[in-house]
Amino acid sequence: MTIDTGTLGFGSGERAIYSSNPWSSRGRMYPEPGSLTRSEFQRDRDRIVHTTAFRRLKHKTQVFISPDGDHYRTRLTHTIEVAQIARALARALKVDEDLAEGVALVHDFGHTPFGHTGEDALDEMLKPYGGFDHNAQSLRIVTKLERRYAEFDGLNLTWESLEGLVKHNGPLISPTGEGLRGPVPQPILDYTQLHDLELASFASLEAQLAAISDDIAYNTHDIDDGLRSGLLTFDMLEEVPFLSGLMAEVRAKYPNLERSRFAYEVTRRQITHMVEDVIAVAQANLKTLTPQSAADIRAADHVVATFSAEMAETDRQIKKLLFSRIYRHPEIMRIRAGAAKIVSDLFQAYMDDPTLMHSHFWVEQISGLSEAARARHVGDYLAGMTDTYAIRAHGELFDQTPDLR
């Protein structure tokens, strides 16, 4: 598809009519006076950046466990890359950059140590008590578990930021109330009873841009990290016609380029093509939809910010390549098994003896709780751990800790 360059925003400050407007936000759970110097969405973004949860992302796994090397992505560097892409897309489409960036920065708060492996293990441990979902955990962190302010738990983010966090991947329920991707996690249902996030509608365009930026970022950086690790080769990338074409383009322009520069020239083109594809599709969808407000974006019956059919097929091919060559590689699977054991062992140990949790707050809070509430409390504690802390905690409690190198 072709981008309409005449409608792009390049920092002029012009805001599209369908943009979320921080000056007419639906507000916060606990009313607060406005800021003299920042919009409501700027304040949300700043609160997110200053959290303990944000700092912990630097020692949480993206794909490769952090001891593997200093140059592999972590949850933090991944999050920063997502935020950069989201902000660029928001600027191009003239919507609120701060809201798009804020949703991108908070979207992975709920991830456990050891990436999706840790999430799967914790979900298995918590199955009798409602399971575990990293998106719901992100909501718990920003509405309950961060304890920084005198007048409330959590961050007291605006409705729009919370909506974006919960619904950036689309509606959670149908108009008649059925879960669209399985049962809606209980923490989300509980919060929505207090502060209705309208689970049957799409989120703002800003949140949609954060979601597609996540796909663009990890598709690209997992290729980069895979090449660095040796699990991927340039020959393997030839399996995807899109990537094969990019490599041919780089070889033609720079025939004797060193390996590391060659990889970067390919991945930077990958990001550019994907970003431009999303902009063109969003422009076409907006032209058809003709939204007159952010509410019209939410009321649409389809996502506005997405890939074209051709790029969606490329996205599918890249994910297939990454799953077969990296995520399911025998060495990665060995490490994943060890990581899952660490999480499962710690959960059982803390359930058996909550005093083993190294925090007076966590131990005191668990007194008198039902078994289900205690399990959720232990889950909160475990989910907040970094990889390094979980490995150390396991080493203190058990004679043998799996080697994740």
Please describe what this structure looks like:
With 405 residues, the protein is mainly α. Helix 11 packs across helix 12 (259-289) and helix 15 crosses helix 17 (371-383). It has helices at residues 40-49, 52-56, 75-92, 97-106, 115-126, 134-145, 159-167, 186-194, 205-229, 234-237, 241-253, 259-289, 294-299, 309-327, 330-352, 360-366, 371-383, 387-397. It has two domains: 39-330, Hypothetical protein af1432; 331-397, no CATH class. 59% of the residues lie in helices and 0% in strands. It contains 18 helices and no strands. The radius of gyration is 22 Å and the shape is globular. It starts with 39 loop residues before the first helix and ends in an 8-residue tail after the last helix. Residues 75-219 form the HD domain. Keywords: Hydrolase. This is Deoxyguanosinetriphosphate triphosphohydrolase-like protein.
